[in-house]
Amino acid sequence: MLNLGLDVVTTAAILFIVSTGLLLVFGVMKIINFSHGAFLTTGGYASVIVTQAGLSWWWGIPCALAIGFVLGMAVERFIVRPLYARPLDAILATWGLGIIVGQIITLVFGRGVQMVESPVTGALALPGAQYSAYRLILVGVALVIALALGWLLNGTRLGLQTRAVIMNEALARGLGISSTRVRFITFCTGAALASVAGCLITPLASVDPNMGVPWIVGAFMLVLVAGSSLVNLAIASTVLGGAQVLVSTFINPVLGGLTIAVLAALLLRIRPEGFARG
Amino acid sequence: MKHGMIATGARGWRRATMAGALVSTLLAAALTSSGALAADPIKIGVPVGLSGANSVVAPSVVQSSQLAVDEINAKGGILGRQVALEVADDGSGAAGAQKAFDSLIFDKKVNALISMETSAARNAGLPIVTRGKTPFIYTSFYEGRSCNRYMYVDAWVPDQQVAPIVDYFMKQKNAKTFFLIGSDYAFGRGMLDFTKSYIEKKGGKVVGNEYLPMDGSDWTPIISKLQAAKPDAIITSTAGGAPNVTLTKQLRAAGVKVPYGNLAVDEGTAKSMGSDAEGIYISGSYVTNIDTPANKQFLAAMQKRFGADLKTPNDLSVPQYEAIYLYKAAVEKAGSTDSAKVIPALAQVSFDGPRGTIRMDKQRHTPLTMYLGQVQADGSVKVIESFKNVDPGEQCPSLK
Fold first, then answer.
1. Among A47, A87, A101, B274, which lies 20 to 30 A Cα-Cα from A54?
2. Do B51 and A122 touch (CB under 8 A)?
3. What is chain B's percent helix, strand, coil content, to nearest 5?
4. CB of A111 within 8 Å of any CB in chain B?
């Protein structure tokens, strides 16, 4: 029982970490960044670079953050910004970018699967179960990210401007807020978050040029259901992620993989605004 | 005017040029056709997973193919003809295999297909092999009982591989309950179905049998079930490459320490998994420290040919090397590359390779010497026991 509960909580945490970057970009720019998977992969390979350089795995996190931010800057400036007035084309462009980044990574690192040593191995002995220590750490990480982003959005001037742009971009610009700057910083932050997420999942998975792809669909569904609020994303991660764990455990894991997509589709059919309030 | 032997009028010149043209065309045809016959290489098609799940092992398969072809060509080729390799990417799956097989058989018109592939790719390619009537030597271990008029297999089947691990666990580790985990496709299910019936035949009990899709990477619910079931031993059969790595990492992260037998991991992948792979039991027909002159010679030749780029020879790449030699022997016995003659000849020839003597005469499959090994801390495999000439069992009774 404890095991199942921990499965749900840790899966929700992982889904949350992977989806926050996508949520930020969607909320502010109203486009789904399909290169999100490519940024996840870049973060994974940041871990590989750090490991190959002989440094401790923990250096991968700032490394991934930096790479993601810089890449995000280039992408926003040269691909997304010119397509500002054409959101559908922007989505298509990010999809193409995802493919290109995947191929570049293949050219540089090869197609094979890379190995990254886990920073924390083994399980924690808890009353009633043994549970993977690293997964438990990720719950803490998810909380930290949520709090940090929450503080950024609610406690800083930039956050205030971002929330204004999320609510109504035209009105915000009318008030003198530079929406271009907000969009730029949001995209870079979203990309950096995706990159860090990719780095964080490497101890649980293998690193290969397509590692980000399976996560895009799940993250996409969660973001659509959550709208633009971080709290809603946490709720969506817990509800949908929990459903995935329950179906995988009690029915079978093959159907479990479908759960998030199916539930999200049903939810949006019943309540198009998802978990958002109005 | 005198009518001479040599025509000098206009009509005569035309006749002369026409005769001359005819003679030179015949001469040219005769020269080029005989020249073409002598220079026409024997093409061996190698459809292999350069991308996708098998991308980790495909380079080693291509390398052993190249060494075999180079060695054969250096000694004069097959029946005086040089051998050429045509490598195509089958994407490690059915869709890619269809494209690869089509292009190799009907575009490049290869004389034979010799390769390792995932079972999904093999099953998709077989109808094309039948249509093209091309001899196909399948060099990958697999779940068994795949039969086709044009196919031979020189790698192991579960009847040869599963017994060593299960017997060892039951006798030496006193295991009575087993938990089986696999990838959801022909190989994963076929191997574990056989394992389950073998365990039950020997008096053991299977307390869990779970599958994840081939590209799935989140084993969390399965690991939770495993911990609830508390088995004495685990046996896994996932697709090669990424699934092996993710499952092992997550098992170790969850603190699972019971004896772990992996039916589908090769030495190369195990070596690159680092400390996570330590203690895993594997069973196969090839390990790099097989102590025979043939193996030592093979390893030296590979090292010389590829140097620093060498990918560790393994149980998926060595059968490829031997299969190319078996094809050579069959063509020489048949005296031609004609399918109808080569197919029966493949059952009659043998080759002494790094794995010993290979002869595909048991319903298209071959008896093999199997090795039970355990992965050590440095990634090498220590051989615990070896079993000589294990019979493949009843694989294709209708294709005697």
1. A101
2. no
3. 45, 20, 35
4. yes
pLDDT in tens, B226-270: 988 999 999 999 987 778 888 988 898 888 889 999 998 877 778
Q: Which residues, numbered 186 to 225 in chain A, qualify as contacts with chain B under a Cβ-Cβ cut-off of 8 Å?
A: 203-206, 208, 211, 214
Domain B42-156+290-366, what fold?
Answer: Rossmann fold (3.40.50)
Instruction: Specify the domain boundaries for CATH 3.40.50.2300 within chain B.
Output: 42-156+290-366, 159-284
The one-letter code for the residue type at A37 is G
For chain B, list residues with pLDDT below 70.
1-39, 400
Q: Which residues pair with B387 in a beta bridge?
A: B370
A253 CB within 8 Å of a chain B CB: yes
Q: Under a CB-based contact definition with an 8 Å cutoff, are residues A48 and A64 in contact?
A: no
Residues of B in contact with A139 (CB under 8 A): none
In chain B, the residue whose alpha carbon lies closest to the alpha carbon of A1 is B228
pLDDT(A278) > 50 = no
Residue A277 banded pLDDT, cuts 50, 70, 90 = low
Cβ distance A134 to B273 less than 8 Å, yes or no, reads no
Report yes or no on A265 lying in a domain: no
Q: Looking at domain B159-284, does it have CATH number 3.40.50.2300?
A: yes
Cα separations (Å) of B77 from A84, B24, B69, B150, B354? 63, 32, 8, 23, 21
Domain range for residue A33? Answer: 2-211
Query: What is the ipTM metric for this complex?
Result: 0.71
